[in-house]
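Appendix B. Chain record.
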Amino acid sequence: MYISYKPLWHTLIERNMRKEDLRLAAGLTTNMIANMGKGKHISMETLTKICETLNCDISDVIELVAKMKKLFAMFLTLCLIFSFSTTAFASSVDEREVPVASADFKRVCDQVFEGKGEVYNANGIDITNSFLTRYNAIYQSGNYDAILSGCFKEGISQLTGHKNIVPDVTTRTVLHPQYEESVVHLVKQNGFPYDGKSWYLVVTATGSYGYQDSTNEIIDFPSPTINVSFSDLGALFSGSLDSIRTTKPAINSNKTSASFTVTTTHTVSCPIPGVDYVTGTLGPFTNVSNFTIEV
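C-alpha cells predicted for this chain:
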C-alpha cells in the first residue's frame, strides 16, 4: 500500500483553493507541498495542520492505494504518451482562459507606468516605450489581467520595477536608503506534458545601503534579501524553488549605483494527464534577474 493525496487535491478544487493558498494558511513550506505533489510521506504533525486548516477529516486529505493499482496507472501513462496528444489533456486540467495578475505583478506594472521600470522581450531587448504606448489605455482602465495576458501572447520575458526610498534629512550625513526592486519572469512549458502551459514568478530584492550625502556616493552595499513568489499555476500545480544564487553587489566606479544578479532554478509538480495517482515534474527552469540600484 502507499499514500495518495488525490483526496486533498479534490478538496482544494471543491473549495476553489490553490496549493499556495493551503501552504500559506497552514504554515507549510514549499518543500512540503512539493513532496505531497510527488507522493512522498509527510509527518502526522503536517497532516494535522492540513486537517485543522481545512476543517476536514483525514479521509479528505489522504487515502491508501494498492501498489498494483499504482503500477497499472504507470502502465497507462506510458500508453498515453505514445497514443494521445497532450494538448487536449492540458486544456482539460488547466481551464483558465485569462491569467490572473497577482499583487506583485500589479506593483511592478505600476512602477513601469510611473517611469520606474523596464520591459524586455524574449531577446533581452528593452521595449519599454512601445509597451507603454500599446497598453496605456488598458492600464488606465485598471485591467491588469489583460496586460498580463498580452505579455504572454507577445512573448515578453520580464518586467522590472524600481523603488528607492531616501529618508528626508536637514543636514548632510551618512544615510541608509531602502530599496525594493522586482523582476517578473514569464515562464512557458515547451513539450510533454502540458505543452504551452504558462505561469510567472516574481523575484524581489530588498535592503538598504550606506550613502554619503555630502559627496552623493554609495559607501557600502550589503547583500540583499531575496523573495520569490509563484503565480497563475492553477489548483493542481505547485512551484518549488530548487536553488537561488545571488552575486555580491558591485559598486560602480563613480559610486552612484550598485549591481547584482539573482539566478533562480525551480520545478513545478503536476498531475500526469489522464491518469490518477501519478504525478510528474516540469522543469527545471532557470531565470536570471539583473538588478541595478541607483542613488
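Further analysis of this model is presented in Appendix C.
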